[in-house]
Design brief:
With 307 residues, this protein is α/β, with parallel strands linked by helices. It has one domain: UDP-N-acetylmuramoyl-L-alanine:D-glutamate ligase (3-Layer(aba) Sandwich), CATH 3.40.1190. It is built from ten helices and 14 strands. The strands form three sheets. An eight-stranded mixed β-sheet has the order 4-1-9-10-11-12-13-14, with helices on both faces. A four-stranded mixed β-sheet has the order 3-2-7-8. The chain has a two-stranded parallel ribbon with strand order 5-6. A hairpin with a 5-residue loop joins strand 7 and strand 8. Helix 1 packs across helix 8, helix 8 packs antiparallel against helix 9 and helix 9 crosses helix 10. The two termini are 25 Å apart.
Length: 307
């Protein structure tokens, strides 16, 4: 299996579930509170680790208890955390998440030490890329840090898988698009990046073609409960989401892309990668939490073969 370098934010999710999300100025009492490890990069590396991928993680954390907990959780899943930079007198990122009875969520986020992972940190630690084959990276770290990592990855011959979340309002430079092998925006992110409002398959296809015109080799547009759209050669393909009894969609997009990259690391074709990703993401919505919702490989393969 090819070796994966994962980069992006890693944080603690402080989560409460209620029937409805509070309106502005409204207070809703709940009878629950749970703490989960999270962050888009953390969710993706945890998924890859749980699936058994050859995975290392690179980011910056603080010296607080949450940071230590996050490193321990990643290590337990088999993720190589030896390259994580520890910044004294700083904290891990914190996400405060509210989830309603329809599995929709609302999130407040502060990045903590994640925000201090700089482009210079990437340059100073570029030896980390040397024994890797794939870079999977999200944009919950400083934009220029992300772009620098993509540049170094391509210089060293890695395949680049980009999760453009949150999508930068200033867009992504043309020179960066051309270095990206796979990009997976959702409807909102596609609109920010292309100016095309995505609300159905037809508009998603326009967004797909626009991203290709920017130089991305293989764009994938996720459409939430509908499924996702991608190109296999010249053919546009749509894969429907698997009908599951969802209770929490918090990390489904992260788990989707990690499942995709896991299959990519095994040299599977894009159709296999997409369908495996669709399966693991659908299963994850049936369990509360971010990293706690990651299913086992055995469970994924059981549903994958069935569908």
């Amino acid at each position: 299996m090819k070796k994966i370098l994962c980069m992006g934010s890693i944080n603690i999710d402080l989560t409460m579930f209620s029937k409805e999300l509070p309106k502005p100025g409204e207070t809703i009492k709940t009878d629950n509170f749970q703490t989960f490890p999270g962050g888009k990069g953390g969710n993706q590396s945890a998924t890859l680790g749980k699936l058994g991928a050859n995975i290392k993680y690179f980011t910056k954390l603080g010296d607080d208890l949450f940071s230590k907990q996050l490193i321990d959780e990643q290590s337990k899943l088999g993720v190589d955390t030896s390259n994580i930079i520890i910044e004294e007198n700083n904290t891990a990122g914190i996400a405060m998440i509210m989830v309603d009875s329809h599995a929709q969520n609302s999130i407040l986020f502060t990045p903590g030490a994640n925000a201090n992972l700089s482009a210079q940190d990437v340059i100073d630690n570029q030896h980390i890329f040397d024994d890797c084959d794939i870079l999977e990276i999200t944009m919950e770290i400083p934009t220029q840090t992300c772009f620098q990592a993509i540049k170094i990855a391509k210089e060293k011959g890695l395949t680049v898988v980009l999760d453009p979340a949150p999508a930068p309002e200033t867009g992504i430079p043309a020179e960066i698009y051309k270095l990206v092998d796979y990009i997976k925006p959702n409807e909102t992110e596609t609109e920010i990046l292309t100016g095309i409002k995505v609300n159905n398959i037809e508009s998603a296809e326009k967004g797909l073609n626009q991203l290709i015109s920017y130089g991305v080799k293989h764009p994938i547009i996720s459409l939430g409960k509908m499924g996702c759209l991608y190109k296999d050669g010249d053919e546009v393909k749509f894969v429907e989401a698997i009908d599951m009894e969802s209770i929490d969609t918090t990390a489904a997009g992260d788990i989707f892309l990690a499942g995709f990259t896991y299959s990519l690391a095994q040299d599977k074709d894009i159709n296999y990668c997409i369908n495996f990703a669709n399966t693991i993401a659908s299963l994850s919505t049936t369990v509360k939490g971010a990293q706690t919702s990651i299913p086992t490989l055995a469970k994924v393969m059981e549903l994958f073969r069935e569908k």
